[in-house]
Design brief:
There is one protein chain. The longest helix has 12 residues. This protein is mainly alpha-helical. The protein is built from four helices and two strands. Strands 1-2 form a two-stranded antiparallel sheet. Helices cover 39% and strands 9% of the residues.
Length: 80
């Protein structure tokens, strides 16, 4: 039976561009970390960025005003 990490890696291989770097082909880290069974290494990196304080602070900063659409505006978080 496949675990979720294997399923996600298969999805990467099937749907990503042939030139994309796949999680299963990663050469690893400079500083070794414990291997996780439920998520690939790139997913772990993505979650670290999304949940870090610096990225979350972008929610308080205004990026784009659209005067022709009323009071609609985008924050730097949604723009990123």
């Amino acid at each position: 039976m496949k675990n979720s990490k294997q399923i996600l890696e298969e999805i990467e291989e099937k749907y990503l561009n042939k030139r994309a770097v796949l999680s299963s082909k990663s050469v690893g880290r400079v500083h070794k970390e414990a291997e996780e069974m439920d998520r690939p290494c790139f997913q772990k990196d993505k979650e670290r960025v999304i949940h870090c304080k610096a990225f979350r602070r972008l929610d308080k900063k205004t990026q784009v005003f659209s005067f022709d659409r009323g009071d609609h505006f985008r924050t730097r978080l949604t723009h990123t």
